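Researcher: We're teaching a course module on how sequence relates to structure. For the next exercise, students receive a sequence and then see the predicted structure as tokens, so they can try to spot secondary structure elements on their own. Here is the exercise chain.
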Amino acid sequence: MRFNIDKVHKELTSRFDLINFDNDYSRKTCKILYKNNFIKSITIDSRSNVDVIFIELMASECVSYLSAKLDLPLIYVTPPPLISYVEHSVLGHFPNPAVVSHVLDDHSIPRTMIDRFTYTVLLFYTIFLLQYKSWSARLFDIQAFDQIEPIKPSIIFSNALFISDATRPILPNVIQFGVIHLSQPKKNT
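Model: And here is the predicted structure for the students to work with:
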């Protein structure tokens, strides 16, 4: 909400810039989160009444640190249907480039061989770039959340639904809940 649209258009137009921004923003958010007094108190107090961690998945799995620290199940919530370049690290598989477009691609369904090839190159480029950014951040700005292995989520709630998004294979622990916020269709009179 506080972004200047001209700045966004000028500085976040390339995929490289978007990945850098996502990774930096994720890490900055994690730093702020883990400095929060409430979060500090529940990580110290073993009697806290927390049963599960719900958190938004971004470009970094640093958000899973709280789940690992408290030994609690982790549930991710993601606004886009799924974030292509983190699916491998979070879910353990790569999305199929024959049927699933990249979240940063300019078309929603790969129809031609060129689309599929472009998607495949973009997928591996963004995965590599994100891994490199994550590695270099851990090298030069090590944080507590960098020192543990990320926890895999029990469930991912995804803002998608087969009636409004392109069809794609999904794992059983990905629950689509999109279009819940849409109002009922009105009768034509």
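Model: If you want an answer key for the exercise: The chain has six helices and four strands. The first strand starts at residue 53 and ends at 56.
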